[in-house]
Every structure is written in C-alpha cells, then in structure tokens.
Amino acid sequence: MDKQDSYLNELSLECRDKAGLFLCTSGSAEALLNSQKYHLQPGMLCVLSPLITWYLLSQTEDFGGIYIVDDLSVFYAVVRSNVDTLLHLKVRNNPCVMVDEQAYEFVVERKKLLEQKQWQLENAETDEEKGLIRQMIHLYEQETMLEVFGIYFRRTKVEAKPLEKNEAIVYNFIYSLHLHFKNERSVAFYAAEAHLSTNYFTTLIKQKTELTPSEWIVAITTSHAKLQLTKTQKSIKEIAEELNFPEQFTFRKYFKQYVGMPPKEYRQQFQKQK
C-alpha cells in the first residue's frame, strides 16, 4: 500500500459520517463500494454518503481525482429534499456514473471555487468574516450536490464488475473489517467468517490484494487512530479505549511499531505542519 493508496483509504474512514462526491480525473483504480467492485477511470463520478462504504484496492501510478466532501449536516437540506433517492437506496446500489465533458468541467471548476473560498477562510481575520465565508462554502457545496444528483439521473449508471467466488471472499473480508476493526484484530476471526483455514485465507487475501489480512487490519486500525489524533481532541487514552486496546501502553506500542513514532509525537508533528 503506497502513500497515495494509504491516504485515500484514510479518507474513506474519515468520510464514514460525511457526504459528497469523488470524480476520477486520471489513471484508474479498482475500488470496493458497499462490497461491490468497480473499475474507476477518468470521467467516473461516485456519490459518497454514510450509506456507502468504500475502499481503494489497487491503482495505477497516475490515479487521481477530485473530492468534494463535508459533514452530513451541511448536505441535510439536500438529503431531505431527495429522501426518496437515499431511503430507497438508488444511489447506494449504484453509486457511480460516467459523466460527459460539461459535467466533468462543472465539477473541476466547482472544486477550484471551493479551494479559493477555503483559502479565504483560512486567511480571514475576524470571526464574522470566517462565519460568512463558511456559509458560502456550505451553500456552494449544497448547490454542487444538487447538480450532481441531476447528473446522476441523466447519465448511465456504472454497473459493478461481476465477482468470482474468491474475489467475493476478499471483498466480504474488507467490508467486515470496516465494521469490526475496533473489536476484532485477529485474522482467525475473519477466516472463520469466510469458513476457511487461517493459512488458506491469508494466502487468498494476499493473492488478490497484495496485502495480507494482518496488513489490512493494521492499515485500517492505524488509519483510524491517525484520524482521531489529527481531527479530534480526544486523549490518547480515549483513542486506545475506543479501539479496545487493553491499556494505553499497548496502544502506544502498537502505533509506534506500525507508524514509526508514538501517537503523541504523531499528533505534535501534524499540529506543527498546520
């Protein structure tokens, strides 16, 4: 798992309670959305919401795209006005569409506008100015999502790629890991779910994803820990308890082993870079 892959999967965890969109602009990737496999390529737009869990499985070196993501509360008015769409799971069951050039350019330009507003927000000098700019950002994001819903219903939805038996086992593991990583970090648990021996299960996951189940477990656990360290004010003890480590010391040792530094130092480095 390279740095870009790690970043995108960290983002997938961060977006568990968020909504928005992703537009692929270069390269290609294999992604898992709600335990279904999709081949992402330029021009493919994916709707993101708490109803949709996703992980990047593999990618080309030039894979890239545009994200417009924010808290679900920002999109509440949009979600409420499109309740039929979400509650009947139309988007959930078919989260990806191919867009035309006009829609593609709209998303690109809207991303530039939001980045400009974000820069203005970061450089605003008064709370009143910040509040006004933040409100503009939210309105632009809401408008963008409404446009995306329009694009979604005008364009042809992208069908998930059919899965072989072994692929289904792999992707069910990743989906289950997403649900249970806070409580279950044993390969044996996930092998038992698949009704396979631990050795065969490990070989299968490695063949299909280039990572062992243990490496997947570490990647998801440390990604979540990093997000809690950088995006919240939770204490290290609270994060350790949330991840069900028996004690704070065990969590520190685990984090340092796989990230290369203690959690406190990781948080301090992130704060210095802001």
Describe this structure in words.
There is one protein chain. With 274 residues, this protein is an alpha+beta fold. 59% of the residues lie in helices and 15% in strands. It has 13 helices and seven strands. The protein has helices at 3-14, 76-81, 83-87, 90-93, 101-123, 127-154, 165-180, 187-193, 198-209, 213-231, 236-242, 248-259, 263-273, and strands spanning 18-26, 29-33, 36-40, 44-48, 54-59, 64-71, 96-98. The protein has a four-stranded antiparallel beta sheet, with helices on one face. A three-stranded antiparallel beta sheet has the order 3-2-5. β2 (29-33) and β3 form a beta hairpin. α1 crosses α10 (213-231), α5 runs antiparallel to α6 and α7 (165-180) crosses α9 (198-209). The longest helix has 28 residues, at 127-154. The radius of gyration is 20 Å and the shape is globular. The relative contact order is 0.11. Mean pLDDT is 83; it is low at 1-7 and 83-89.
Order of helices and strands: HEEEEEEHHHEHHHHHHHHH
Distance between the termini: 25 Å
Number of strands: 7
Largest sheet: 4 strands, antiparallel
Which range does the strand content fall in? 5-15%
Helical percentage = 55-70%
Number of helices: 13
Strand order of the largest sheet: 6-1-4-7
Rg: 20 Å
Shape: globular
Overall average residue pLDDT: 83
Query: What class do helices, strands and sheet pairing give?
Result: alpha+beta
Unreliable stretches: 1-7, 83-89
Task: Summarize the model shown.
The protein has 274 residues and is α+β, with helices and mostly antiparallel strands.
